[in-house]
Amino acid sequence: MEDVDLIIKGSTIITLDKDDRIISDGYLAIRGETIVALDSCVPVPIPYRGKRTIDAHDAIVMPGLINCHTHAAMTLFRGFADDLELMTWLKDYIFPAEAKNLSPEFVFLGSLLACAEMIKSGTTTFCDMYLFEEMVIEAARTAGMRCVLGEGLFDFPSPNAKNPREGLVYTQRLIEKFAAPPLINIIIHPHALYTCAPSLLVEAKRLADVYRLPYGLHLLETQKERQELERKLGKRAILFLDELGYLGERFIAYHCVAMDEEDIKMFSHHGCKVVHNPESNMKLASGVAPIPKMIKAGITVGLGTDGCASNNNLDLFQEMDSAAKLHKVFSLNPTVMDARTVVKMATQAGAKVLGLEKYIGSLEVGKKADIIIIDLSKPHLTPLYNPYSHLVYAVGGADVDTVIINGRIVMENRTLLTLKEKEILSQAGKIAQRIGKTLKGG
Known about the structure:
The protein is an alpha/beta fold and 442 residues long. Helix content is 37%, strand content 24%.
């Protein structure tokens, strides 16, 4: 009998592997940060002895969720500028609020709050674009989360960079100082075509190529953005990006609401990745991204929450529910975006979007132990016929009981083990009072 660090037994295991195996009355064995075995507990006894054993009867065990696009520290701007269209929200509220309030301390606390929220709702990996990203790294390290992080790059001064050159230098320092795959990963993040000149886009792509890193930006979030970019560039935005050499397998585009069939064809041909953010798009009335067409065309699509200022939460279970239902009602077709497809977007496909599919996104021998346990012993989760259906249409973030990241238990029985939750909430409340005095309308 082999010794391992942790055994999880007695559960329904949703592997999300290439065969979509679901193991009833199963067990997982973990040594260090790696899954070393998973199988059924019956009829053969478990051939491993664990230093710790978690009895997960009446539970679903599955890969941790992957939030492919967010702005973590914006938890501290949650709810202050709602019911606005995208550009009004961004230019009249968000950018001014950030100019007045952002600091390394703000970003660290906001990111700690985000990590607490994400862990408590089953997210184990997140991809972040914001400012002072070194502080987001420190928050993720404190929480024990897996992350893909990149400083937002702009043409104009930001609270962390006086000019584009400073932003690029800061990004290169993040790469050289912090990148330690697969737990801490760096991505190159020019903000958008409407906030970055071609020269900045070229330099950002050059940096991504030197270090062979992923690169991503907000793209075609509204029809208005599409029209204004075509007037400004004199051509289609996707054609412009193609001419810059952006289209490729390491390119990640966030939103893509206003993409048409020709755009989808080009993305599919070049192997570009897309992140769908349905709740943010609905809240800002940006439109409905043609995700079913993208998936049919073979594009890898992950799921993201966007930031708390435009969502207003980081619960990927809620995001899955919205993604499935939004496309059904929009297309008047109840068969599109079926539950299994949506669960894969939040796990297996999300890992591929971020270039981490060798490590996470499914439960398989040799992969990292990023695992969540969902307690099924609740009225709204009884009875269980189809696990995928349950995960999309019935489970909520609050049903996550235990979270393991890289083999480390970071939450057990709904109690965070790596973060001081009450202290974070208290500090967030204090900083919110200070922020409120600086915001438009008082």
